[in-house]
Design goal:
By secondary structure, the chain is α/β, with parallel strands linked by helices. It contains 5 helices and 14 strands. The chain has a 6-stranded mixed sheet with strand order 2-1-3-4-14-13, with helices on both faces. A hairpin with a 5-residue loop joins strand 5 and strand 6. The N and C termini lie far apart (37 Å). Bound molecules: glutamine. The site of glutamine has 13 residues, from helix 2 and strand 9.
Length: 247
């Protein structure tokens, strides 16, 4: 790793609570893909009762079960909402997966009818229709920016986008946001929400680099990410496409 390039500050929200299906691999992937290009990643890992120590360039949060989501919701709304929302308003980037994505929208109504407050980054809300309704589970392939994203989803909540969110991608195989309207995830500014676990970034290197570019856009807009040998990453991507029954 060289130190002549830019620094990228990553705030990793609640890795102990919000880490379903290896979501922590997203942060490892971002760290490596930065370091291989001479970008120095500085990661703050937040526990439930921690406060953000300052602005970050990129906020990352994974998925979690309803109980863990409840604690994460408290940590976010009570201790970190102001800093996080002001950074995003200044153009910071975000990757929020599944339960983390739900918490970054307006609210999540859980299977038992209780409501968790979200931060309202995404104009969207999520309703869990109840534990007797089948969950959205399986391999996902979607169309994104003229290419594909792959991942694995497992959620009870159905997310409905408001008019100020645009979908991240269009579902080709799988359920996506709600199993009804063909949308997957959401984008607002430089913030991305998605239901894709996997972890999603290692097998979607184009999305990983897109997020790094978003995160560098303010501090080092002219920095060019050198190409990497992504043969293994694309082999994993193709295997996920096949696992979803597509070619
Ligand atoms: N608890 C949420 C749901 O089931 C999120 C699950 C997850 O993050 N995988 O909808």
């Amino acid at each position: 790793m060289t130190t002549s390039g830019p620094v990228l500050r990553i705030a990793y929200l609640y890795p102990d609570l919000m880490n379903l299906y290896a979501d922590r691999g997203n942060v490892t992937c971002l760290e490596r893909r930065c370091a291989w290009r001479g970008v120095t990643p500085l990661v703050q890992r937040l526990e439930w009762d921690d406060r953000l120590t300052g602005p970050a360039d990129l906020y990352v949060i994974g998925g979690g079960q309803d109980r863990q989501q409840q604690l994460a919701s408290q940590g976010l709304t009570r201790r970190n909402a102001d800093q996080l929302l002001s950074s995003l308003g200044d153009g910071a980037a975000m990757l929020a997966v599944c339960g983390g994505y739900q918490l970054m929208a307006h609210r999540y109504r859980a299977a038992d009818g209780s409501e968790l407050a979200g931060l309202g980054v995404f104009d969207a809300e999520t309703v869990h229709p109840g534990s007797d309704v089948p969950r959205c589970i399986g391999n996902v392939v979607c169309d994104w920016n003229g290419s594909r994203l792959v991942g694995f989803e497992n959620h009870g909540g159905r997310t409905y986008l408001g008019s100020n969110s645009i979908p991240l991608a269009r579902v080709v195989r799988g359920h996506g946001n709600n199993s009804e309207d063909g949308t997957e995830g959401a984008v607002v500014g430089s913030a991305i929400g998605t239901y894709l676990h996997g972890s999603v970034l290692p097998k979607n290197p184009h999305l990983a680099d897109h997020i790094i570019r978003l995160a560098l856009a303010r501090g080092a807009p002219d920095f060019e990410l050198a190409p990497l040998d992504d043969a293994a990453e694309w082999a994993a991507h193709r295997a996920a496409v096949r696992a979803a029954g597509l070619r």
